[in-house]
Here is the input.
Amino acid sequence: MYFYCHNQIMENKPISRTLRMLSQLMELHDVNPFKIRSIANAAFKVDKLPYPIADKSLEQIEKIEGIGKSIAAKIVELRDTGTIAEMDELLANTPEGVVEMMGIKGIGPKKVAIIWHDLGIENTGELFYACNENRLIEVKGFGLKTQEDIRKAIEFRMASNGKFLYAQVEKEAGELLDALKALFPSGLAEFAGDFRRLCEVISELVIVLGSRDQEIAFTTLLQSTVLNNVTANGNHISGELPNGLLVDIICVEKRYFYKELFLQTGNDEHTEAVLSRITDVIDQPESEELIYIKSGLEFMKPELREGDIYIERAENNALPVLISYHDLKGTLHNHSTWSDGVNTIEEMALYCRDTLKLEYLGMCDHSKSAVYAKGLSIERVLQQQEEIDHLNKKLNGFKIFKGIESDILGDGSLDYPEEILKKFDFIVASVHSNLKMDEEKATARLIKAIENPYTTILGHPTGRLLLSRKGYPIDYKKVIDACAANKVVIEINANPLRLDLDWRWHQYALEKGVWLSINPDAHRNEGFADMHYGVIVARKGGLYKERCLNALSLQEITKVFNQ
Ligand SMILES: [Zn+2]
Ligand SMILES: [Zn+2]
Here is the structure.
């Protein structure tokens, strides 16, 4: 006689889980549905057994209702060898990222199969990007709601790794700081750490709190509801935001606030480099500026406080005047309904002119190889250009430039014959396919595209998707040198998932004389707002307006495009 016992059921879990996985893989690969159903049912059955199935012989397992001969053999195979050959074979034919996507809540194997085969998406990062670009709504069996559910599920998974995109936490961080200021009206509170340094990925939100009485600050915070799971340790109060972001609040007496803020903002290398220059003690500076003055340096904005990159320039009073959002005069690299965008060209132009007060809009719909994104055939390129000519006549001085985001093909060539390429005002050349090349091949491919006389801008140079997909490996120096030699501008793709060219390479590009362009890659009007994040990383990279392509006025950029 068997009794239902928690432990016994748990022992069956690995077996039922493997059977379930097998049935999902079969569904993904479109195996006979009858077979799939019988395995899924067996998994369910194994879960419900009141005894450990692994203790039974093959003959006994075969006799269990709902299992049968062939599945019993699989269970015994799994027990004896640790795996099932049929499953291994299916796994070998499935990219790792596709297997991972099956674990996302709300999409079963059937949907993953469509995502994989019809959209060419092979991992969670690409899927998240596709959701943000609205690629799923028109796919059969999907729709806006499914797309939103998938997007949220992925966001949730990303958060469970403890890391967040800057853009994902910006709003909540601001609200938390406001709440703290309200709790301590006579205190001082400011962000520090990687958030204040405008890093692209945030793993902890650090805040320095200067309060006259530390004891009271502790108690107040512990009793307030601004944070979840609050704990105190020394002068740190830790907790979490509802989205899971860890928060570390450092409480100091008010008179130590600026020193602590300085110490908690720059990375270690930076603060050491600055402090090593100070001879007298400054324990209670009245501002951060004072610390820099005492070290013989120009004041350094938090986003520049990485290592000692800018120390020499700060010493010579030669820090760049960092670019700001209002320096941008136009926006290049955007997608309309002609390819995979949501708004028409006219809607985008009016939005840029009337709401964003910009002077020009560069349209760069996808080129013909990007079939998944409704890339433009030659015929449609010509039709689109006619439409742009027509719109330009009625926009009163605002200008739409005719561009294209041309796929860089596997061999580095662009996607149209020369007579079409020459019809564009400018061309953004980007890699969207064959992302798995080694460094040498990927670099050579990019350089060939850079050397093409029609390439104006190199789009998202590594194809990375932050927190989810590494970019293809490239030799940055060679690629940047090639851009310098061929007068090709490098894009800072402003999508918070991309921020590619990485800010760590902006200085090298600027030194080589390369121009950068802050491109939102907008697929709808709301997408233009990403330029804010592009500006943030550009500042971190030390970009100034004189070297930013879309900080040029309409008149100036027209001249550049005509050359
Ligand atoms: Zn692209
Ligand atoms: Zn694009």
Q: What stands out?
A: Confidence is low (pLDDT under 50) at residues 1-8. The radius of gyration is 28 Å.
